[in-house]
Amino acid sequence: MPNSNSNNAVCRIIVDAMGGDFAPLNVLLGAAEAASGNPSLNLFLTGPKDLLSKIITEKNILLNTDCIIDSSQVIGMDEHPASAIKSKPDSSIVVGVKKVKSGEADAFVSAGNTGAVMAASTLFMGRIKGVSRPTIGALMPNLAGVCMLYDVGSNVDAKPKNLFEWAVMASIFVSEIYGINNPTVGLLSVGEEKEKGNAIVLEAHELLHNSNLNFIGNVEGRDILKGSANIIVCDGFTGNIVLKFGESVLSFLKTKFKDFAQKSFTNKLKIGLVKGAMKEILSDFDSEAQGGVPLLGVNGISIIGHGSSSPLAIKNMILRAQEMHSKNLVQKIAASVNSHLLNKNLES
Amino acid sequence: MPNSNSNNAVCRIIVDAMGGDFAPLNVLLGAAEAASGNPSLNLFLTGPKDLLSKIITEKNILLNTDCIIDSSQVIGMDEHPASAIKSKPDSSIVVGVKKVKSGEADAFVSAGNTGAVMAASTLFMGRIKGVSRPTIGALMPNLAGVCMLYDVGSNVDAKPKNLFEWAVMASIFVSEIYGINNPTVGLLSVGEEKEKGNAIVLEAHELLHNSNLNFIGNVEGRDILKGSANIIVCDGFTGNIVLKFGESVLSFLKTKFKDFAQKSFTNKLKIGLVKGAMKEILSDFDSEAQGGVPLLGVNGISIIGHGSSSPLAIKNMILRAQEMHSKNLVQKIAASVNSHLLNKNLES
């Protein structure tokens, strides 16, 4: 029997075969890679059975078509999340999330419509007690090590207590997944002094300061790439804009390098010489190479990936889900949220 | 006599000789460069007369010491703006701004404490009628041409009407200074659809949509470096974080290139070959190379520069102030604010 620290049972993961810009092919390839030589993984795919079986056979993908859970509908990448999950109950997302809710599976993984996965996961899996808003973060390029930004888009009108809850959950996630003991938490603001910031930040500062998290105070926009904290919290509006700005640095530089190369033959030679180096150096800004991140705060494991996920990204998302399951992360997050809330009640 | 479109009179500019990390030397050098061969410029410097005279003489700087307006106090870069301008009435900033207020000068230029210059300019010059909050913007690196972000830090808790006013003022500024007829205005948000955004953005969208500005709708974080709009408006909290994140890209990449070079001799050679190219390509992220930007919305010209301003940046700030004066920009902004407010009243 699994103890509270680890769970060695077989992990049953549902993968949304129709999620992402290159679905279902990339998903099937990634799923096959994740399953290969991984006996403790029990993989299922949601999507139209006929279509998926055909591709698996045609492309000789090493997946058993018995693992397909037939679902007739697909939620498009640009569909309105709330209405889509309502109007498409037989979609690969809704069917998959509900399998976790019913206990038939341990985790759901999707590179599909982010908003729809978040909405379905929150609605059907439910929230962890004490969490008012689940959150999704992003691993940011940085010079120090691990720097995760929370929230990056699910909560555009956040309250101070939301930021605090995200810091609590992210602290457990970063500690367990990246092995960073007592990770540092920074609060994104316009100055390091605690008096600097908007109304939300000023209140969130107090909550974080009075907690037993490893809170290092306010950090600024420039601290993200420095990696001044392992976890940086902000409202989802600011986080989403910073994330997308960061993601656009790569294409900006690519265009600049290209323009420079086209100016002269010498320039072209120079750029040609360092193309590989450049690729290596700039890879930190390449969001497509990363796997997905979990929606923290729901009563279950739900991993959300970039729409442009490669087979490798899909594989990594599945393995992340498996790791979260084996480490009992949802239970640990629930316990931490509970203890922080209890502390708060005692103080007030 | 000047007409409403241009002002050919001599322009009297006060330069804060004590403003910036490299003051007074960089300021004096930049001021001398701006004044050289510029007969329509009448330059004054605020700061301790003895100190400034000594440096001008020692360094053979081509400035007449008669142009120094003696002021005994200096506001430090990290002092609290509001208390500093109160407790230091004889500071180079307060003395300089008051000369514009009294009509003895046409413009004030400083690379000093940004908050203090903004506070003093707003308090002493006063706001243009109809402007609830003056704003400061930043020229962002981008692939298309001119892209200015407003606000970048003076207003962390902005209201929708503030964003609208900034768009009105920035439209005049960008049109007159960069010669862009009817510049495009984008509203920074988490999605292009008008339903996407936080509460402030949703309301600001309506105000912008119903105006006769060249509003192109919501833009996302990735649209800044693309240059999807000439003017992008957002609250000062988000703007400040995006600006500082953007400024940090350069030092992030420099460190990455350095680390790469140190890995092997071949790497070192490769990086050495493209060092110049790299510098050229990345120069867009170099905020220090830029001159200053005006505080829009005050009843006068107040140009604020980066603390690390070089002599060239100081020179450019002075020339920008002169250009704003010769183009009667404050009057044009006041007229535009007035007309947009009148339009609004007619509609409601």
Written overview of the protein:
2 copies of one chain form a homodimer. The first copy, chain A, is of the alpha/beta class. Chain A has 2 domains: 1-131 and 297-348, Rossmann fold, CATH 3.40.50.10950; 139-284, Isopropylmalate Dehydrogenase. Helices cover 47% and strands 14% of the residues of chain A. The first copy, chain A, has helices spanning 25-35, 49-58, 81-87, 92-101, 114-125, 160-178, 199-209, 223-226, 236-263, 265-282, 311-326, 329-347; strands at 11-16, 41-47, 68-70, 107-110, 135-139, 148-150, 184-188, 214-219, 231-233, 293-296, 301-304. An 11-stranded mixed sheet of chain A has the order 3-2-1-4-11-10-5-6-9-7-8, sandwiched between helices. In chain A, helix 1 crosses helix 11, helix 3 (81-87) crosses helix 5 (114-125) and helix 9 (236-263) packs antiparallel against helix 10 (265-282). The longest helix of chain A is centred in the C-terminal third of the chain and has 28 residues, at 236-263. The radius of gyration of chain A is 21 Å and the shape is globular. Chain A starts with 10 loop residues before the first strand and ends with a helix. In chain A, 53% of the residues are buried.
